[in-house]
Automatic annotation (TrEMBL):
Keyword Lyase listed: no
Family affiliation: Belongs to the class-V pyridoxal-phosphate-dependent aminotransferase family. NifS/IscS subfamily.
Protein name: Cysteine desulfurase
Keywords associated with the record: Iron, Iron-sulfur, Metal-binding, Pyridoxal phosphate, Transferase
GO molecular function: cysteine desulfurase activity; iron-sulfur cluster binding; metal ion binding
Transferase among keywords: yes
Enzymatic reactions: (sulfur carrier)-H + L-cysteine = (sulfur carrier)-SH + L-alanine
Record EC number: 2.8.1.7
Enzyme class: transferase
Species the sequence originates in: Segniliparus rotundus (strain ATCC BAA-972 / CDC 1076 / CIP 108378 / DSM 44985 / JCM 13578)
Amino acid sequence: MSKQLDARSAASGAYLDHAASSALRPEAIAAMTDAFGLVGNAASVHAHGRAARRALEESRESVADRLGALPSEVVFTAGGTESDNLGLKGLYWARRAQRPSRDVVMTSAVEHHAVLDVVDWLVKSQGAQAVTLPVDRSGAVRPDALAAALAQWGERVALVSVMWGNNEVGTINPVAELAELANAADVPLHVDACQAVGQIPVGLAESGAAALSVAAHKFGGPVGAGALVLSRRHDAVALLHGGGHERGLRSGTSDLVAIRGMAAALDAATEDLAGSAARLARLRGRLAEGVLRLAPDALLNGAPLGAGRLPGNAHFSFPGCEGDSLLMLLDAAGVACSTGSACTAGVASASHVLLAMGVQQEVARASLRFSFGWNSAEEEVDLALRALPDAIARARAARPDSVPV
């Protein structure tokens, strides 16, 4: 009974944390339900195996088409973190095998920890040299910064990794320009595109990137499904060894149910991308206007609302509040949002993204991310705006240094 009550309560609230995970799309549920009826391993040669294989390859072709790639360039994984690990480690090992002097890995300080922690591991365990690319006040990597770093480190550069759209503040990087610079220097560019797919156009060939990391649950697919879209122009070394599945880069029996759900969700997410983005931007704009009206001292972090920002992202700092307190007060009012990446939730520290952007620590700790998805509604914006004034007042009063009025 309590689980049913919790489910009804959650359904009646405002879920504004799609950047952490979005709800399963009906199309994904239908595709997964059908796939549950398939019996057979896609690697088997009998009729059941061939049927499973056909379903797998149809999904691969669909994902490739939606992401501007060849089917042979889609390597299915268990999600964004595995894709980032395979992309960075695999490309790094392949490059060093070609030339041992290639030991430099470049990335920015605002990346997801699925990238930052991999780079840290490569430094500590594989002898890599990490080079951090600076970001501007909006959190973007500027092409001139990459050009300068590539010129400084020359042929020692093994790879560059930069996210397409930031998971916290939503800032979009100029991926095509960065890829052009990297390609001119004969350096592969890995792009964490987990937040961008389903919100803005993302394509491997058009961008010029060497590899893209994708996570299905960000655009209405199932948790536990993702892909590394790896250009045929580049080699990578596998993390998992066994049966040689997925172009020899990801051994293991394919999770056909999850993959079918991912492909269906991606089809739905990109069918009318412009219309979907416009709808998200309208909802985000209503929220931002209301927040700044109710809390005039609130600060919008990241790029301005427009083409330089993911349409479903709004990130604010509320001076005088602790972000964690504000989060819990809003949650009690039925509004789900986030203080940053869900992968670092529960860690009482200022966002590394905001600090890298030059935001002062106290302001960074007073921040919340609101993110919209495919089933977000105006009523959720209304609920959030109704709950916000009281939550801000109580969060400020709860600070140890607050002074009673």
